[in-house]
Amino acid sequence: MRAILRYVYQYRNDFDFFVKADDDTYILPENLRHALAGINPEEKIMLGYPFTHIVRDGHLSGGAGYVFTRAGFKALVEESLDRHPACPTYDEDKEDVKVSICAYAVGVKFRLLADRHTTYPFSWRSEPLNECLFQWRSLHHLFEQIPLHSKVQRPPDFDISQPFIRDERSLLSQLLISDHYVNPKIMYIIRFTAYHLRPVGIVYEY
Q1: Do 9 and 102 reside in the same domain of the chain?
Q2: Which domain of life is it from (predicted)?
C-alpha cells in the first residue's frame, strides 16, 4: 500500500483528484466528474462508500473505489505514511481501512456524496446504504433472488422505512459512479446499457 501511494505521489501536482478501485470495478467517469465538479481539490477530502463497522467515523471501500483530492492525497503521503503514530505500518490486508485511518490522522475529511434522491453514488451492498454512488457489491448480489421454497423464488423485499430507501426503485443511484465485483462480460453489458441503449420516448434530464 505505502509503496504504491509513494509511486503515485510523483504525479501529485498533475491532477486534481486521485482515484483507486479494484480491477473488477466498473466506473462511469462522466458521473465521477459530475460528482467532483463542486469539490475543491485544495481541501483535504476523501470520498467513497461509507463503511462504518471498523472505523467509527466510516472508512473507505477499496473495492468500490475511493477518491482523494490533491490536498488530501498529499497530506496522506507527506504527513501520515510512516510519520504519524496513528498510521499503521503493515501492508498485509485491509488497505482501505488503513488508508482511512492514516488520512483521518492528518485531518482529511470523509465526505459523503448523495444524489437528488439522497442516495449515494459509490456502492456495494443490498442493505440500507446500498444506494451509494460507489457500489461495493455486484449487481448480481444487489438483485439476486431469495429462495422461499425449493422451487419458488421472488425478488427481495425492501424496507422503505429506512432513511436511504425511498421506494424499491431507489435500490441504485441514478448517478451511480461505480459497481464492484463485475466480471468482464457484465462490464460489456453495463457499457452497452449505459451508453448505447435508448428506449424510445424517454427524455433524459441529464
Answers
A1: yes
A2: Eukaryota
Helix or strand or coil: residue 85?
coil
| HEC profile of 107-140 | CCEEECCCCCCCCCCEECCCCCCCCCEEECCCHH
Domain boundary at 111, 133, 155, which? 111
Question: Do 127 and 175 lie in a common domain?
Answer: yes
For 11-31, give the secondary structure using H, E and C: CCCCCCEEEECCCCCEECHHH
Q: Summarize pLDDT for 179-200 with one digit per residue, the tens.
A: 888 889 989 998 998 888 888 8
C-alpha distances (whole Å) from 136 to each of 31, 58, 60, 89, 147 are 16, 15, 10, 25, 23
Residues 81, 131, single domain; the answer is no
pLDDT digits (tens, 9 = 90+) for 131-182: 566 666 666 666 554 444 444 444 444 343 444 444 455 566 777 888 888 8
**End position of a domain, from candidates 90, 111, 132:** 111
**What is residue 58's predicted lDDT score, i.e. its pLDDT?**
72
The domain spanning residue 102 has which CATH number?
3.90.550.50
